[in-house]
Amino acid sequence: MSVRTRALMISACLVVATGCAGSTDATRPDTRSPSASSGSAPSSTPSSSSAEPVTPARRAESVVAPRRPVRARLPSGRVVPVSAAGTTGTGVLDVPDDVDVAGWWRGGSRIGDPFGSILVAAHVDSDSEGLGPFAELLTVREGARIRLEAHGLRQDFEVRSRRLVPQGSLVDDAWIYDAAGDLRLTLVTCAPPYDASRGGYQNLAVVTAVPLGPPEAT
């Protein structure tokens, strides 16, 4: 009989966004003119503030506004809805209970982002529903195609690897969810062996796919 899988474990303390701090007065370079710093009379040359206004920067038409995935078309052609998923208080990815629905981690990358992991996970099976669509990840082969879709946007990916990662903390496997590095699609589900005395499935099947081209408007 099929059993409900354990959710993907993610160390919540690692999900930290960092910003860029501005220069402080102690580190800001001295931009005063030599005459001003020596106490001489100011120059009569007009200041740069009298120049024509600078045109504000605009997003290039070729730049895509990133959007979260809402559907995934697996190599078999099966289309799986994708909902947004956060983490619980214990750092567990809150994968949808329905095995026919996958969860996209809110802390990861999106379609249209230039780098990082687009992390999508789903249960492999459940007591009441049996095997789910992500069960095909257990046997997916290199070169298989996966399409990820957002509202008004889509992107095709090609599978490059399938690895088994032990269940538990992913501190040493940050490549699965890291927002740095080359853009990639990371699909995750639970994998055998199953041991009820040790909490269920003992591995994660992690499939990594790379983009075949830029996102396309739909």
Mean pLDDT reading:
80
Percent of sequence in beta strands? 25-35%
- What share of residues is helical? under 10%
The topology string of helices and strands comes to HEEEEEEEEEEE
- Give me the Rg, rounded: 24 Å
- Structural category: mainly beta
Largest sheet: 8 strands, mixed, barrel
Strand order, sheet with most strands: 1-2-3-4-9-10-8-7
What is the count of helical runs? 1
Any idea what the shape is? Answer: globular
What is the number of strand segments?
Answer: 11
Q: Termini separation (Å)?
A: 41 Å
Return residue spans where pLDDT drops below 50 for at least 5 consecutive residues. Answer: 1-46
SSE arrangement:
Blueprint: H1 34-38, E1 71-73, E2 79-85, E3 102-105, E4 117-121, E5 125-126, E6 130-131, E7 145-150, E8 153-166, E9 184-195, E10 200-211, E11 216-217
Parallel strand pairs: 2-3, 4-9
Antiparallel strand pairs: 1-2, 1-7, 3-4, 5-6, 7-8, 8-10, 8-11, 9-10
Provide a descriptive summary of the structure in words.
This protein is mostly beta strands. The protein contains 1 helix and 11 strands; from the N terminus they run αβββββββββββ. It has one helix at about 35-40; strands at about 70-75, 80-85, 100-105, 115-120, 125, 130, 145-150, 155-165, 185-195, 200-210, 215. β5 and β6 (about 130) form a beta hairpin. The chain is globular. The model is unreliable at about 1-45 (pLDDT under 50).
